[in-house]
């Protein structure tokens, strides 16, 4: 079915009264202001078939009681059946039926509004799921090739280096070669309701209508006795042969009519059905005939191992089942966003999180277009349907010149939009993007870093190198693994980019002698040396920031391959839009396209090479190996965090503040525990030496290699320390924990791609490692280790819980919109997905929340911090404070505060001020260095210096009054009951 938003013809913008356009635009802006519900806080849930719209509706009262303002949902559009995440969308025009009906969705929206909450969505615009039979767009491309009306929706290289792939899509689905699959009978031709398919196990692939003649002209003698059926077949074959060779709506409708007609005549004429069945059976008996039929299709079936080298459609990273969309095309944008924009215009949702914007050809243009089309969707509601095509064109012309502001400053864009942009810790978010900030990985890494003791970075490095006998710096490791990804997973993408560069090189006599091999080598080196995810070159003008990034990458590459100096210069000039003397405007456009495709390759190379490979190999301190983080950067000093938060408040006050997400390698509480090792390097080293002796008998030697290897074992101990259960557990519960750690280690080893991988599984090594995990945790076989580990783990856990409470309070009060990942309002010791998608027990959390009195006894909460109520209390008090005083913690001024005294290094302090209101936030840190009680006298002699006058403050957590005489706060008073505080002037109570 062709989406309604597919343009069928241009409108006449000149025919529309400008006064009418002004009126519609002003009405749309006004409606946008009415619908603008910018969040003070969000709560992220993961929808899937076992957590539906109805389940979400049931927890709305709990979320309201907790104090959140927005439910932030994972993708809810129709996805591959059984999807546990929703990022493999197959239909952008409808809700996922596995999550519920339109009615149950509306019930959820109504419940949220009833409790004063709003809904924002995670959206997937880069790619769609194509690994099943359910994607209509993809199936149409496979059936019709370049003549499909959806052929331009996908980023397909129709003219590749192989003649067998000209005008065809490579489908790497087979477990063997095509010839072997045919010989073994693994491929079957089937007929169903006027259509022919090739079936490979559970996958059905439609055949081109023009090839039906090959199926119907065989053995037609049986139809001589049935002239009507024979004439119908002849007419159908003639009609199929007359199909146009260009994509058009008319061709699409003609082709669909042929299939309907064929289904009807087969149903009307039993002899014809007998002929079809006989021909299908005959072809299935003959590998040669079936092979000839496949040769005539718009796809080529191949062994799955051909994908890295020869796949000719762009994917999400290296996932064959996720095909990238050409979102830069207007018709694709409109088809993908029409339903979501309608939900926004209807007020059912009020904001979007855009997944992986670096996969887009031009993110800045995409976000601008999104804001434009939001206003278009609002204007559409006030416009006559017959007038809309022309009105739409006029509105677009106006909006392309300027997107009218719905507010000022932070709210300058009418639609609340966040982007999942992965920033280097020193990389700014592009200011020209029409968004309100990132989804929070930058915040996560800065916040996490302040709980890592940077003073012990050298000791941690020495211990790690001594244990592993490997001194490879992290930066060198990332280079190696990015090259590995380019040579394995993305080899075909690199080759296609090199071909594009070669065509440019042949247009200038100064570069005509560069070989394809040398160009590919130069590109591989520059991409492997690239310092960030990508640049953002979209025109002939290159920004200073992008120029610096490219120069840096080329310089690094030059040091590694000096023999290709001229090739690297050519790559640099091409990326920087330094056009050749003989370049026509068409050549220059091709050069810009090359830069765009280059940028779309550096991004997945970095993601796969760093986050999905190097992060599983560099195990010095696993809490630093997080999305957007830099494991070589051991700790963040308070001054750096203050700078970051100050810049964030100024530029992106509505950016998201996250500590755990569906994509984090480990939860916030697991990281908080592992961070403790940076405070205890001596104890950590002593324990490692002891555990090394005790666990040596449980390692296995295979082919001269020890399993687990030293690096893997180092990761196992940190993972156990981070994820060890809090409460006492039954044998079956502990068995479940062991299984979770084993599953994590299997994933970690495959991602590391050293001894095993997803494509080349080394089962003996994996089995040896999982056996090691089980054996060392078996008290009957390894009691000394279990007891010693348990003692150390308890110490790490106690300190880690304190770390986690501190980072929680930072998340809730620092500049930005705090997000709580499902269940993490209490303790959550999850590892990487799918472990972090386990069901959340909301009944327990609701009961704990109800047990919290208005001002629960702090001493009791601190003494029993393992039950989770204290973390829940921080959320409740801070979130309700944000609801009562909107703006204070978002657009409110951020003031770094200083402390003096013996414990000054153990606190982080700042103030928020807005419209005459003041809140001061104080959190403890580095608790291992505090030997006394965590409260009161332990903080004697340390004070906070205030640069403003305030008289009486009150702690929202304990209701204690705090004296602020002489513009100073005594930490022994602030931390009299708890080593965390939100102090507010009493007029805010």
**What kind of sheet is the major sheet?**
8 strands, antiparallel
Gyration radius (Cα, Å) is: 31 Å
CATH class categorisation of the largest domain? Alpha Beta
State the total count of DSSP E strands: 27
Strand order of the largest sheet: 25-24-27-22-21-20-23-26
Tell the overall outline.
globular
The CATH homologous superfamily of the largest domain is termed Glycosidases
SS field, number of helical segments: 33
CATH topology annotation of the largest domain? TIM Barrel
Distance between the termini: 58 Å
How many discrete structural domains?
5
> Unreliable segments (pLDDT under 50, ≥5 consecutive)?
3-11, 404-410
Range of strand content:
5-15%
Helix content: 40-55%
| CATH architecture identity of the largest domain | Alpha-Beta Barrel
Oligomer: single chain
Chain-averaged pLDDT: 93
Estimated structural class: alpha/beta
Describe what you observe in this structure:
With 989 residues, this protein is of the alpha/beta class. The strands form seven sheets. The chain has an eight-stranded antiparallel beta sheet with strand order 25-24-27-22-21-20-23-26. A hairpin with a 2-residue loop joins strand 17 and strand 18. 48% of the residues are buried. The N terminus is likely disordered.
Task: Report a brief summary of the structure.
By secondary structure, the protein is an alpha/beta fold.
